[in-house]
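Bit of a strange request maybe. I'm writing a small parser for structure token strings and I need a real example to test against, not something I typed by hand. Could someone generate the tokens for this chain?
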Amino acid sequence: MSGHSKWHNIQGRKNAQDAKRGKIFQKISRELYMAVKAGGPDPDSNAQLRLVMDKAKAANMPKDNIKRAVDKGSGSGAENYEEVTYEGYGPGGIAVLVHALTDNKNRTAAAVRSAFTHSGGSLAATGAVSYMFDRKGYIVIKREDLDTDEDTMLMDVLDAGGDDLQSSDEAFEIYTDPKQLAAVRDALEANGYKLETAELTMIPENLTDVPADKVDKLQHLIDELEDNDDVSEVYEAANYPDED
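Reply from user aminoacidic:
Good idea to test on real output. This should exercise your parser:
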């Protein structure tokens, strides 16, 4: 595992994301819909649905919204979403991976292509970027008010079935096999830990330094992609320069 801190990037954009709560609810609704379509409406037997429901609750999504999305996935409504992945290079040659849930692939492809073009990047062929990322379960436990040192946390993570631990002054970041995420999460919660984040994600194997003069353009690309209602997740293999 590289020294990449996903938590640092998350915190860097958290305020902006909080300002887009309505869009976040819409994106989570689609994820709920897809999880139900794939594995059924019972979270006890559908680990992916359980994870998305936890994500919805963490975002303070109203229970009625959650129920409505689950009901849609259970029924035979007119909506029919597809999962689509786009790969490309942002400013400075940074690898960018885009996951979308869409009912109109032509619309989504055009919007994603436009976002890359606006920022001086470009879309790439399938497989050009995805091999640079690994699918992982990802858990964050904030260290504030937590009386646990790194050695103790590492033992608890390994006992729970986790693969790797990274620590900073702000948080412990835990990585798991994707299929073990729910089990590791449940084991850590049973051990008394309060989890800030528990999700499936894509982790870059290596990071590319972002030239200082390309930072604003890259962040503009990421923002434009995340503002798209069809886009569910954006991942970049970027090592941003220190702000100091």
